[in-house]
Write a structure and sequence with these properties.
Structural class of chain B: mainly alpha
Order of helices and strands of chain B: HHHH
Order of helices and strands of chain A: HHEEHHHHHHH
Radius of gyration of chain B: 12 Å
Number of strands of chain A: 2
Number of domains of chain A: 2
Shape of chain A: rod-shaped
Strand content of chain A: under 5%
Helix content of chain B: over 70%
Largest sheet of chain B: none
Largest interface: A-B, 22 and 26 residues
Number of helices of chain B: 4
Number of helices of chain A: 9
Structural class of chain A: mainly alpha
Strand order of the largest sheet of chain A: 1-2
Radius of gyration of chain A: 36 Å
Strand content of chain B: under 5%
Helix content of chain A: over 70%
Shape of chain B: globular
Oligomer: heterodimer
Number of strands of chain B: 0
Chain lengths: 177, 60
């Protein structure tokens, strides 16, 4: 009859040796035999039992519930699975709430971005598209400055231009720079 | 010296530097095609009503 060392069994199920030692200590899975030197030897039945443990753990059951499911009849097992199903429903609800708040935050952030989406570079490109070269853009600034200096200043700031650069542009448009 | 400039002032300023009505219409078309959201923001910033904004965006 084939037997397994603790390391072989641990590797086969992707567990650590200490996990199997822990299962041994709490009585969940005890090795069928020991060698003369005292090493644990797991039987084929032990391997199949561990397979069921891993399946139940994979469904998110606690070790206590796993033990109750494997030792009891189907009565408590149904109750345990129903309880776990209910817990999962709560967790899904919790996660969905997180999903909604993140989506709402993102929506807020991206719509906020739209407000400042026109920057200096885009504005110059749009003026160029209208056929305005640097000379006529300067004339436009001069006109804006002459008619409504403050509004001109505010418009430049709204394009994301720094205060000092905006002042420079205003002076330049009037030929003072 | 006024603080707020409205649509008329903008039109007047662009006319002053040599843009005619056709050029401005074309400019709105280009702006709408390249940056629809920025175009809407700009018109809103000018203080136009939602109706007028929709009008300019679809007509031009």
């Amino acid at each position: 009859m084939k037997t397994y060392s603790i390391s072989q069994l641990a590797r086969a199920f992707g567990l650590s040796r200490s996990t199997l030692l822990y299962y041994d200590r709490i009585g969940l899975l005890r090795a069928a035999k020991r060698t003369a030197a005292g090493y644990r030897r797991y039987s084929e039945n032990d391997r199949k039992y561990l397979e069921r443990i891993c399946m139940l753990r994979g469904a998110g059951l606690s070790l206590a519930d796993v033990e109750r499911m494997l030792s009891g009849d189907s009565g408590p097992s149904v109750a345990i699975l129903e309880k776990r199903l209910g817990e999962l429903g709560d967790e899904i609800l919790f996660l969905r709430n997180q999903q909604h708040s993140i989506a709402a935050m993102l929506k807020n952030m991206t719509s906020h971005k739209c407000v400042t989406v026109i920057d200096k570079k885009m504005w110059i490109k749009m003026l160029e598209a209208a056929g305005m070269n640097e000379e006529s853009r300067k004339a436009w600034h001069a006109e804006f400055e002459r008619r409504a200096s403050e509004a001109h200043h505010e418009f430049l700031l709204s394009l994301g231009i720094q205060e000092s650069e905006a002042r420079d542009i205003q002076e330049w448009s009037l030929g003072k720079l | 010296m006024q603080k707020n400039v409205g649509k008329e002032d903008w039109v007047a300023m662009f006319k002053e530097v040599g843009l005619d009505d056709d050029a401005m219409k074309q400019w709105h078309q280009i702006f709408e095609k390249r940056h629809p959201e920025a175009h809407a923001e700009f018109l809103k910033w000018l203080g136009l009503s939602p109706d007028k904004i929709a009008n300019i965006r679809t007509c031009c």
